Amino acid sequence: MTGLSPQGIANHYRGVGCHIRQPMSFRELAEITHFHLFTMPVVFMILVHVLYLTNAGSRLKVVTTWISFGGVMLDLLSPWLIKTTSLPYRLKPC
């Protein structure tokens, strides 16, 4: 849907032009967040538990856990940040 490019991602969330694709509404962003809010933490919890069952050092386990937690939080916030930030790829008003 996005073409795996920064421009494609911005177009997907912010809309393209006036008549091609409308920006995502609050409801659509809430649906994306709702789905990810229940799946991502479960996957995170399972993978971290598997990591803690390995012979890896405790420092590696803790660092990996915090980095993974940050990734989950970034995944949950990213649609909202893309929609609301004024980074490049801002569309011109109609």
| Regions with little confidence, pLDDT below 50 for 5+ residues | none
Please compute the radius of gyration using only Cα atoms. 17 Å
- SSE topology string: HHH
Mean pLDDT: 79
Strand content: under 5%
What's the story with the biggest beta sheet?
none
- The total beta strand count reads 0
> Residue share in helices?
55-70%
Question: What best-fitting shape do the alpha-carbon axes yield?
Answer: elongated
Note the gap between the termini: 23 Å
Query: So how many helices?
Result: 3
- By secondary-structure content and strand pairing, the structural class works out as mainly alpha
Tell me what the structure shows.
The longest helix is centred in the middle third of the chain and has 27 residues, at 26-52. The protein has helices at residues 6-14, 26-52, 58-84. It has three helices and no strands. The protein is 67% helix and 0% strand. With 94 residues, the chain is mainly alpha-helical. The protein is elongated.
Helix and strand topology:
Layout: H1 6-14, H2 26-52, H3 58-84
Helix pairs in contact: 1-3, 2-3
Brief overview, please?
The protein has 94 residues and is mainly alpha-helical.
